[in-house]
Design a protein that fits this description.
With about 575 residues, the protein is an alpha/beta fold. It is built from 15 helices and 20 strands. Helix 3 runs parallel beside helix 4, helix 4 crosses helix 7 and helix 7 packs parallel to helix 8. The longest helix is centred in the middle third of the chain and has 18 residues. Bound molecules: (2S)-3-(carbamoylamino)-2-methylpropanoic acid (URQ) and zinc ion (2 copies).
């Protein structure tokens, strides 16, 4: 067979030409049987009886599914955190991801407070470029706020291919922003056409409740969940939704860990707000009862923020919402620490480095808990593990779909095979696995990354540094299409009216009892001195329970203001009574 002219003069290395035959392609919109021809890392042909140049390596995918490579929207490889550094670095973390069928990660560049965002971006970029085995991109952290940060956001969007920025309502003193800063940052992101990501937990409340738990002598991992129950996540989620809606900025809630936070997102979306919810492998696969395990190390391995929830129905609930579209996509928040690192908090749960694994097991856990249970079909599985991420973060159809011209990031997936998850066989650097012992249907047989086989026959064939940065433009349609229309049709309008021309009060005549801003705040104290006969002079104030003793002398909003002399108070409403009100 002669090689058609369009294929001549192409290097014949088998690796750069792959022909996948007999598979069933699964995209987010449909499933269909077809062969796939790949060359130089790109999908070149899809169909039957393809005419391809010689030398292509053939892969028999008969009876198997072919899915777009997974996209993990939330990782923290080699993150410096809580006095140590995440043990899965970009090499170990990405090779584990590839072994599990994920072919791209979106990691985080998290500047310290007052550190330049651009400086952090360069630092993280250098490390990822050296070590990542698969393609990657970044969310950049807004961990402090100033005009300088606002300028750097513009540079990151216009020159560095960043379109998503992470904020935290938790981690007081480290990453946390206050509401006004969040609002200003969201307005700046909206100006650039970027997406606001939020770690939604009330950091002030967590800080106080941690003190309460420690004061009660609760120092173990159970204190971690007890100090930030799901209403602390729900409140912040709702608050973030309100602030984003006021800024008309699209919002993405990361690591949705509880029913009530998920319900807040569902409610907002049904009201038409542009909000995305990201449950993670951990919150879809396991629950927070592990925090009460008698083995300290076991319990500490599950410590992350927000915590996993002790309500054992939470994973199934979140999976239902992911299946029906109320939640949109999945990440892992892969931020791993070994037992000796977790032991930094052996006497104080607030010192346990927060983070768990997920990068290798996300796809199988979601297949097992989502598809194998009948909650979602394979197309929805592809949507929530790959396609929606590419659309929301604006690199579709480069990735997230099997179509001509797209990157050859794909997985030959065996829906019927099973694998047992274990720290002893996973490819992470971390020596624990929160899914230990879980048997999952849905197994990646072959992972192809940029047209190269990197996982086959349970063997990795990765190259450190082979991963490429994926630049992303602003104004992703998935996030901004509605907002750009609303910017035109929902502009607040003032009222066109005649100017007021009546009399105006002369504020110099303000009445004495008008509490002005400068007046000292009223002191509300139980031990306020009595004013006459052991109880307060009724005529000095309209309220006293003095017969019940000074503890009950009432607090008055006008306590701080001297009453007018001789100002009589008639009998209390309803006539005389034995108790003086
Ligand atoms: O909060 C995050 O997402 C980072 C710091 C990872 N750790 C965690 O517990 N989620
Ligand atoms: Zn977080
Ligand atoms: Zn995270």
């Amino acid at each position: 067979m002669t090689t058609p002219s369009k294929f001549r003069n192409v290097p014949k290395t088998a690796q750069n030409r792959l022909l996948i035959k007999g598979g069933r392609i699964v995209n987010a919109d449909r499933m269909f049987d077809a062969d796939i021809y790949i060359e130089d890392g790109i999908i070149r042909q899809i169909g039957e009886n393809l005419i391809t140049p010689g030398g292509a390596k053939q892969i028999d995918a008969k009876g198997k599914l072919i899915i777009p490579g997974g996209i993990d929207t939330h990782t923290h490889m080699e993150m410096p955190f809580m006095g140590t550094r995440a043990v899965d670095d970009f090499y170990h973390g990405t090779k584990a991801a590839l072994a599990g069928g994920t072919t791209m990660i979106i990691d985080h560049c998290l500047p310290q407070k007052n550190q330049s965002l651009l400086e952090a971006y360069e630092d993280w970029s250098t490390r990822a470029a050296e070590r990542a085995c698969c393609d990657y991109s970044f969310h950049v952290g807004i961990t402090w706020w100033s005009e300088e940060v606002k300028k750097e956001i513009e540079v990151l969007c216009k020159e560095k291919g960043i379109n998503s920025f992470k904020m935290f309502m938790a981690y007081k003193g480290l990453f946390m922003l206050n509401d006004d800063e969040i609002y200003q940052a969201m307005c700046a992101l909206k100006e650039q056409g970027a997406l606001a990501l939020m770690h939604a937990e009330n950091g002030h409340l967590i800080n106080e409740c941690c003190k309460k738990m420690l004061a009660l002598g609760i120092t173990g991992p159970e204190g971690h969940e007890l100090s930030r129950p799901e209403e602390v996540e729900e409140e912040a989620t709702t608050r973030a939704i309100v602030i984003a809606n006021q800024a008309q900025c699209p919002l993405y809630i990361v690591h949705v860990m509880s029913k009530s936070a998920a319900n807040a997102i569902t409610k907002a979306r049904r009201e038409g707000k542009v909000v995305f919810g990201e449950p993670i492998a951990a919150s879809l696969g396991v629950d927070g009862t592990h925090y009460w395990d008698k083995d300290w190390s076991h319990a500490a391995a599950y410590v992350m923020g927000p915590p996993l929830r002790p309500d054992t129905t939470t994973p199934g609930y979140l999976m239902d919402l992911l299946a029906n579209g109320d939640l949109q996509l999945t990440g892992t928040d892969n931020c791993t620490f070994n037992p000796d690192q977790k032991a930094l908090g052996r006497d104080d749960f607030t010192k346990i480095p927060n983070g768990v694994n997920g990068a290798e097991d996300r796809m199988s856990v979601i297949w097992e808990k989502g598809v194998y249970t009948g909650k979602m079909d394979p197309c929805r599985f592809v949507a929530v593990t790959s396609t929606n991420a590419a659309k929301i973060f604006n690199f579709y159809p480069k990735k997230g779909v099997i179509q001509i011209g797209s990157d050859a990031d794909l997985v030959i997936w065996d829906p019927n095979a099973t694998r047992k998850i274990s720290k002893d066989t996973h490819h992470h650097a971390v020596t624990v696995n929160i899914f230990e012992g879980m048997v999952c249907h849905g197994v990646p047989l072959v992972t192809i990354s940029n047209g190269r086989i990197v996982w086959e026959d349970e063997q990795l064939h990765v190259t450190q540094g082979a991963g490429r940065f994926v630049a992303r433009g602003v104004h992703a349609a998935e996030a901004y299409a509605k907002i750009l229309i609303r910017d035109k049709v929902r502009v607040p309008q003032g009222v066109d009216r005649e100017a007021y021309d009546g009399p105006v009060w002369n504020s110099a005549n303000a009445p004495a009892n008008n509490i002005s801003k400068s007046a000292p705040k009223p002191t509300f104290s139980q031990d306020r001195p009595s004013t006459r006969h052991g109880h307060r002079d009724l005529h000095a104030s309209g309220f006293s329970l003095s017969e019940m003793g000074p503890r009950y002398s009432g607090n008055q909003v006008d306590d701080n203001v001297r009453a007018k002399v001789g100002h009589k108070v008639l009998a209390p409403p309803g006539g005389k009574t034995s108790i003086i009100f």
